[in-house]
């Protein structure tokens, strides 16, 4: 039986001020709304694609490489937090907005703004997919990218074309270069990207812009938005504490910095300390804050979420709430009816949730370098988890995936279009004859605490009966001060592996009951590549001088062990995940 869907929220949207007791409610994603009208407003004129692309030319570089070289010049070396006045740097953003004549364009944009510690990218991806399937033209800005900078800017679900990127990039870059000076220098890397996103989405006349916060919220470059349609806060946890604070309360306060006066907001269940701060911040600004609970799988009418992992049901619920409120607040509740039954979400919502796709999060990629049509001897399970909470979610997903509790789903979602249904059947049957070995491929930034990350990963896997045969630790491959194809560093025989050795000691300590592992004659073989580079190999772990060497070692092991299937979990850093994808998809 169809039910009317005009009731979305239990709070009033009248112009009268909100009272504190009525601000906080629980949102039920089964009570949705949905009538809308499609229309667009011309925010900014599009830029002719033939426009001159800047003045920094080099005959040895393509036009795209020239743009990436210019963009790389905006990356600042990491400095101590105390050396940077975040508020002062944030306030300069409004000067850049004026230089680019974006004030009116941004104020006219219908924006969904999302902050949080975990699940920001997933929530934004679900949100974009839902509204696109509702018939709207969408713009999505996320970070970081994995392979190509253009991944951060998506129009109607697709990364922006190289031609359009170049036109908009040079339009912004040249104007800022002309108008900035020593007093107001060129914006730093992420600030420029956020400004570029606003330019792209306004010029492309999208109906909705979904903006993911880069870091924190209050002083994030995306927070130049003064009047979003709706805001969302995903799950909060401990991350970037050197900038955001050492307590969940302090972190929540920074995330709540995206709240705007009387603009509706949604969040998910949070630890008490964090929720208290979110509610307090919302109360001060008369923000109607609602808490959403995970989507009931039955509402999907037999479909599954496009992003894997139990935690994605929480992200999906937040996306449903954000889309519902956006449709209501942006004036699209006309002309077209979207109805849900008593037991399912509207069809465009289900399709949006089911078809959402995000690289590097719970992604399964068979290595085509060694695999063939009849086997999957080497499969990479990639997830950019880098906090204790996300590490736990990653471990739960990994254990479920490798156990094949849903074999059909497992193979359908592997990132390899060459695998047919018949191949899937062969693979499932072959599992009876091959043993599986789990390998960890790990790196994290030195600001992370491996004493928090690795124990959480190991314990969660062990609780589900999964144990890693070996952990491989590798240094970063991408340069943090450069973007583009040249951002991958050449193999350096003098690379500093001290951090990877620290990670290895933590792992060996965990494996041997807090007793630091020592190399033995039986387990201290040297691992060498064609250049003669080597790394220490302990009983339960190894440090490799580079990621390509580690990948080669894995592929060699597959060739030498035809009766074993290697399942490699790649995690700890979204940059590591991106580098692995670059290498195995070549």
UniProtKB/TrEMBL annotation:
Pathway: Cofactor biosynthesis; tetrahydrofolylpolyglutamate biosynthesis. InterPro entries: Folylpolyglutamate_synth, Folylpolyglutamate_synth_CS, Folylpolyglutamate_synth_euk, Mur-like_cat_sf, Mur_ligase_C_dom_sf. One of its GO terms (molecular function) is tetrahydrofolylpolyglutamate synthase activity. It is an enzyme of class 6 (ligase). Keywords: ATP-binding, Ligase, Magnesium, Metal-binding, Nucleotide-binding, One-carbon metabolism. Belongs to the folylpolyglutamate synthase family. NCBIfam families: folC. This is Folylpolyglutamate synthase. It comes from Arachis duranensis.
């Amino acid at each position: 039986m169809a039910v009317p869907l005009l009731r979305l929220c239990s709070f009033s949207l009248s112009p009268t001020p909100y009272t504190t007791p009525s601000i906080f409610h629980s949102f039920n994603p089964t009570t949705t709304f949905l009538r809308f009208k499609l229309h667009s407003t011309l925010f900014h004129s599009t830029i002719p694609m033939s426009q001159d692309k800047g003045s920094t030319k080099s005959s040895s570089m393509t036009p795209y490489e020239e743009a990436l070289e210019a963009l790389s010049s905006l990356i600042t070396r990491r400095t101590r937090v105390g050396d940077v006045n975040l508020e002062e740097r944030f306030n300069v953003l409004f000067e850049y907005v004026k230089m680019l004549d974006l004030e009116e364009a941004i104020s006219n944009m219908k924006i969904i703004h999302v902050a949080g510690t975990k699940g920001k990218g997933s929530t934004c991806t679900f949100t974009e997919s839902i509204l696109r399937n509702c018939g709207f033209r969408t713009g999505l800005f996320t970070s970081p990218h994995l392979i190509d900078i253009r991944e951060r800017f998506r129009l109607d679900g697709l990364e922006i074309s190289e031609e359009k990127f170049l036109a908009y990039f040079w339009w912004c870059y040249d104007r800022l270069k002309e108008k900035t000076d020593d007093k107001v220098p060129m914006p730093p890397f992420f600030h420029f990207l956020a400004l570029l996103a606003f330019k792209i989405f306004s010029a492309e006349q999208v109906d909705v812009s979904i903006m993911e916060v880069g870091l924190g919220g209050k002083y994030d470059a995306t927070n130049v938005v003064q009047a979003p349609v709706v805001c969302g806060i995903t799950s909060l946890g401990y991350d970037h504490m050197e900038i955001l604070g050492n307590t969940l309360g302090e972190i929540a306060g920074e995330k709540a910095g995206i709240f705007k006066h009387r603009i509706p907001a949604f969040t998910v269940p949070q630890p008490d300390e964090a929720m208290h701060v979110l509610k307090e911040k919302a109360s001060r600004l008369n923000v109607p804050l609602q808490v959403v609970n995970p989507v009931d799988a039955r509402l999907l009418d037999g479909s599954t979420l496009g992003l894997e992992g139990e935690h994605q049901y929480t992200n999906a619920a937040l996306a449903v709430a954000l889309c519902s409120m956006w449709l209501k607040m942006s004036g699209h509740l006309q002309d077209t009816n979207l109805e849900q039954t008593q037991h399912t979400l509207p069809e465009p919502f289900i399709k949006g949730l089911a078809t959402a796709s995000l690289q590097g999060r719970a992604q399964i990629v068979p290595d085509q370098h060694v695999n063939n049509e009849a086997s999957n001897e080497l499969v990479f399970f990639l997830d950019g988890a880098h906090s204790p909470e996300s590490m736990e979610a990653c471990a739960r997903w990994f254990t479920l995936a490798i156990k094949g509790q849903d074999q059909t789903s497992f193979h359908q979602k592997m990132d390899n279009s060459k695998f047919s249904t018949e191949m899937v059947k062969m693979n499932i049957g072959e599992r009876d004859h091959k043993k599986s070995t789990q390998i960890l491929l790990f790196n994290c930034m030195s600001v992370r605490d491996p004493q928090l990350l690795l124990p959480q990963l190991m314990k969660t896997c062990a609780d589900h009966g999964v144990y890693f045969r070996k952990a491989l630790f590798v240094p970063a491959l991408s340069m943090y001060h450069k973007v583009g194809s040249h951002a991958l560093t050449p193999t350096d025989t003098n690379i500093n592996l001290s951090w990877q050795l620290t990670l290895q000691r933590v792992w060996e300590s965990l494996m041997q009951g807090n007793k630091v592992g020592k190399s033995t004659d039986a387990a201290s073989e040297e691992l060498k590549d064609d250049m003669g580079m080597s790394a220490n190999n302990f009983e339960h772990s190894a440090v490799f001088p580079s990621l390509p060497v580690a990948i080669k070692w894995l592929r060699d092991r597959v060739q030498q062990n035809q009766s074993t299937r290697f399942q490699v979990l790649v995690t700890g850093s979204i940059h590591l995940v991106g580098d692995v994808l670059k290498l195995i998809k070549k």
